[in-house]
Design a protein that fits this description.
Elements (H helix, E strand, L loop, with lengths): L2 H9 L3 H15 L10 E2 L5 E3 L2 E5 L16 E5 L2 E10 L12 E8 L4 E8 L4 E10 L2 E8 L12 E6 L1 H4 L3 E4 L2 E4 L8 E5 L20 E5 L3 E3 L1 E4 L8 E5 L4 E5 L9 E6 L6 E10 L10 E3 L12 E6 L8 E7 L5 E15 L2 E7 L7 E7 L2 E2 L3 E3 L9 H10 L5 E4 L2 E4 L8 E2 L4 E2 L5 E2 L29 E2 H18 L6 E4 L4 E4 L7 H20 L5 E3 L3 H4 L35 E3 L4 H18 L4 H18 L14 H16 L2 H17 L7 H7 L5 H24 L14 H17 L7 H10 L42 E3 L3 E3 L8 H4 L3 H18 L4
Parallel strand pairs: 29-36, 31-38
Antiparallel strand pairs: 1-2, 2-3, 3-4, 4-5, 5-10, 6-7, 7-8, 8-9, 9-20, 10-19, 11-12, 11-16, 13-14, 15-18, 16-17, 17-20, 18-19, 21-22, 22-25, 23-24, 23-26, 24-25, 26-27, 26-28, 29-30, 32-33, 34-37, 35-36, 37-38, 39-40
Helix pairs in contact: 4-17, 5-6, 5-8, 5-17, 6-8, 6-9, 8-9, 8-10, 10-11, 12-14, 14-15, 14-17
The structure holds calcium ion (3 copies).
């Protein structure tokens, strides 16, 4: 745990908990531990000693968004991943979209205790080799060249290793004996160079807006020397690096990009071959170090009647204790032991051992904490209404912040002005965008490349921590909101929304249910797409990379003035501008998106019928048009979503049937649902969809469905054997919280329709996990929900190391082979910490579903 977090937590803690953390601090003030053990190449293919792991490309640059700071040579230092990106790199401070090497081969040689690999930059026809082998108390890293550096890369190619700033804030370094402080905020010296000297970025894009001056920024080093000691005062993070035949330079990557790291770098020599560079790298290892156990439980607390099982995560060298206890905090501020019970061994999962502590028998409402050994958890509640408000921040705060084309205000704070009034231009054909969008050889519209598409500057939500409109996630939000409205009458009103004035004000009721206003806001943009373009589009997003990484008020990502080619760049006549910064609509048509849109707009029609009749009618007209233009047509959907066409059509058929009662739709639904269930009971077209259709189907349908629900139960019972949490944990590329929430929603439906097969606990399990009973830490993954929750996340305000209340993060990322992570001191890992609209809408639905289940249990 980071010192800053410890200090912040101590500030809020009672004396009882301070003692737990004080141990950690005293340790750092105590005698200086010396490395006792040598690194060994273990069976998992990385170098290991107690307290130190060195991964050598166990994780490669194959992430979704270029350099995700998740690959290369990495150090797990006393349980914290502090270092990444060890590789031959072409910049002092590589940014996310700078070139990364591909691994052409990788060899783990147990006999020589060596990991070696070949790296290649295709764009420069440049190959290098790296070998890593233990030496002394560290490792020796050698860079080998078979051919001299390409001339173009002389003085540019180097060996880099990056250190996460948050682990070194408030700490110092020594370089050849000269002391320095790691800067809390970047303010290094930089210089400008002509563009001709710049190493190209990914696919010729550029992150830098040079305003036409043909130049770029080169950060200068903080310090230079032969031996660098990082944080010698902190045995947990102390690292020694020696360059045996070159200079070491320490850089601050944040001069160019807020998500940059501290970088240690040596330049490779020109015109040389063979072993051209050697580093000795020694991360300090505290003798007999053990990671502090993590007591994992729901930060929101528990309903008295539900199962209550905490999970305790233990270092593999830790000896499990036999018992854990539950204490109640009395009105006098005293701690009363309510229960001591077995801490039962569950077994090993990833790199840790797990215990389970069951305190289901305690049912008195009150304030509690768990004690394991000399450690106490923070407090949490047992009470009948613990779930009643858990979704309020998501609907009251998080969704309003995401609202596009509106000014959003909260008390004294303006979250953002009215952005993207200059929407949108037709994206050009044959274009691959850096955020995954793509245009094929035709536009699939009546518009020419770069032509203005009218009517799009209305409604919609920022998709995530970036600001694009992504239609597929929009339509899933619409459907989740309609479901929440119809099934639970979510009529909370805490937001003032004026579409005419484009103004949103939080914590200010306006007499209209917020969820209907949000359905209206989402539908406005999707309907505008269908009406002005002819069909929904994949997305609407800024064209330039130097715009896309925008941090700050969305109103400034474009100039809000429509592009006028007769003006020069950065010139404006007050009504239009010569800067080509308007967002582009990526318009290629797919059957899956058409069908998903048809289903959601058909559903929106029902919710909006009384609230906004004209819009409701436009929704239904658009839905029918999408159905008619796709139904019974040969499917040529080659998009990544193409595999979901059948599921999308089934969903559209059901929603159109519920809205119109026309039996042609129910007939089609029944045709599709059984083959879909035969394929998978748990997926998108699985029992969750079938159960939602139950009220509209006959008795035979339910009887037939029962077998599939039994099959589903077998699947989900398997999760309890795979991990100690009993939920499906997926963790590659993007954390799996969305899957856990969908799982819990499916279980809610299954429990409602087949309570004799699926008990209510299957739904609670998903929420417990999201609220803190999960690996790595015990924070609630929903910001501002629960006693301790995510306070640093990848929202639009991430550069301020802040959070947006009610946002749900993706959760845990798996670093191969065995390290799960969700950082709480560094907001820039999107796969761990980026709030996204569909998961947040699913969370609102699930929260209401659980409250619905508990209605009868009060
Ligand atoms: Ca996006
Ligand atoms: Ca309202
Ligand atoms: Ca513009």
């Amino acid at each position: 745990m980071e010192t800053r977090v410890i200090i912040r937590k101590i500030r809020n803690m009672s004396a009882r908990t301070i003692s737990v953390f004080a141990g950690t601090i005293l340790l750092s003030l105590g005698t200086f531990p010396v490395s006792a053990q040598k690194l060994q190449l273990n069976d998992q293919g990385y170098f290991e000693t107690r307290g130190v792991n060195i991964f050598v490309f166990s994780n490669q640059y194959i992430g979704m968004f270029n350099d995700e700071k998740n690959a290369g040579i990495e150090i797990i230092h006393h349980g914290v991943r502090t270092s990444t990106g060890g590789a031959v790199r072409l910049q002092n401070t590589p940014e996310q979209w700078d070139l990364v090497p591909s691994v052409v081969n990788r060899k783990i040689d147990k006999a020589t205790n060596t990991i070696s690999l070949g790296l290649r930059y295709n764009d420069y026809d440049f190959d290098s080799k790296i070998s890593v082998t233990p030496k002394g108390n560290g490792v020796l890293i050698t860079v080998i060249l078979d051919k001299p550096l390409p001339e173009k890369l002389e003085g540019l190619a180097g060996f880099n290793l990056e250190f996460i700033p948050s682990s070194y804030f408030r700490k110092t370094y020594l370089i050849d004996g000269k002391p320095g402080i790691f800067p809390l905020y970047p303010s290094s010296s930089t210089s400008m160079e002509p563009l001709g000297n710049k190493v190209m970025q990914y696919a010729g894009h550029t992150t830098f807006d040079d305003r036409g001056r043909k130049e770029f920024i080169v950060p200068g080093p903080l310090a230079t020397g032969k031996t660098l000691l990082l944080a010698p005062e902190d045995p947990e993070q102390f690292v020694k690096i020696q360059a045996l035949d070159a200079d070491l330079m320490l850089y601050d990557g944040r001069d160019l990009a807020q998500n940059g790291w501290f970088i240690v770098r040596s330049i490779l020599p020109s015109k040389k071959t063979g072993p051209v560079l050697q580093w000795y790298l020694e991360p300090n290892a505290i003798p007999d170090w053990k990671r502090v156990p993590v007591i994992q439980f729901s930060q929101v607390g528990y309903h008295p009647g539900q199962e209550k099982v905490a999970v305790i995560e233990l270092d593999k060298n830790d000896t499990p204790l036999q018992k854990a206890s539950l204490f109640q905090v009395t009105p006098e501020g005293k701690f009363v032991e309510k229960l001591t019970a077995d801490a039962k061994q569950w077994g090993k999962y990833t790199r840790y051992n797990y215990l389970k502590f069951d305190f289901t028998s305690v049912q008195d409402p009150g304030i509690y904490f768990i004690r394991y050994g000399n450690q106490s958890s923070n407090t949490f509640l047992i009470g009948k209404d613990v779930y009643s408000k858990i979704w309020h921040p998501t609907l009251d705060v998080w969704f309003p912040v995401q609202m596009d084309h509106m000014m959003v205000n909260e008390a004294y704070r303006t979250w953002h002005g009215v952005p993207y009034l200059d929407d949108a231009l037709q994206a050009p054909v044959n274009h691959q965008h850096f955020d995954g969008y793509k245009m094929g050889p035709t536009t699939d519209t009546k518009y020419k490349d770069y032509e203005r598409i009218p009517g799009l500057n209305v409604g919609g939500w920022f998709d995530a921590g970036d600001f694009d409109i992504q239609t597929l996630s929009h339509v899933s939000v619409l459907l989740n909101f309609v479901d929440a409205w119809e099934k639970f009458k979510v009529n909370r009103d805490e937001t003032f929304i004026d579409q005419e004035a484009r103004y949103v004000d939080m914590h200010r009721p306006d007499g209209k249910p917020d969820i209907l206003q949000q359905i209206e806001h989402g539908a406005l943009n999707v309907v505008a797409q269908v009406e002005n373009i002819g069909h929904p589009v994949r997305g609407i997003i800024v064209p330039n990379l130097h715009q896309y990484h925008h941090l700050g008020d969305a109103v400034n990502e474009t100039d809000n003035l429509p592009y006028n080619p007769s003006l020069k760049p950065y010139e404006s006549d007050g009504k239009s501008s010569g800067t080509m910064d308007d967002r582009w609509a990526f318009t290629n048509r797919t059957a899956s998106l058409d069908f998903f849109t048809a289903g959601s707009l058909a559903a929106a029609n029902r919710a909006l019928k009384e609230f906004n009749k004209p819009l409701a009618e436009r929704c239904l007209a658009a839905a029918l048009k999408m159905w008619d233009e796709n139904f019974n047509k040969p499917q040529t959907d080659n998009s990544p979503e193409g595999q979901f066409v059948a599921g999308a059509e089934m969903n559209a058929a059901l929603q159109l049937y519920i809205t119109t009662k026309d039996e042609k739709y129910s007939k089609r639904f029944i045709e599709l649902i059984w083959p879909s269930l035969d394929k998978s009971v748990a997926g998108r077209g699985g029992i969750s969809l079938a159960i939602q259709a139950l009220p509209y189907m006959d008795y035979d349908f339910k009887a037939k469905l029962k077998d599939y629900v039994v099959k589903y139960k077998e699947t989900i019972d398997g999760y309890g054997k795979a991990n100690p949490y009993g939920v499906p944990i997926t963790s590659r590329g993007w954390g799996g919280n969305s899957g856990v929430i969908s799982f819990a929603i499916t279980n809610y439906y299954a429990n409602k329709a087949f309570p004799e097969i699926i008990g209510p606990e299957y739904a609670y399990k998903g929420l417990n996990y999201i609220f803190g009973c999960h690996p790595y830490s015990n924070l609630s993954f929903v910001s501002a929900v629960g006693t301790h929750s995510k306070e640093i996340a990848y929202g639009i305000n991430r550069a301020d190391f802040a959070f947006i209340a009610g946002g749900v993060v993706p959760g845990l990322l798996l670093f191969q082979p065995d390290f799960l992570e969700n950082k709480e001191d560094w907001p820039f890992f999107w796969g761990e910490n980026e709030y996204v609209i569909n998961i947040c809408s699913e969370y609102i639905f699930l929260s209401n579903a659980v409250n619905d289940m508990l209605k009868n249990n009060k």
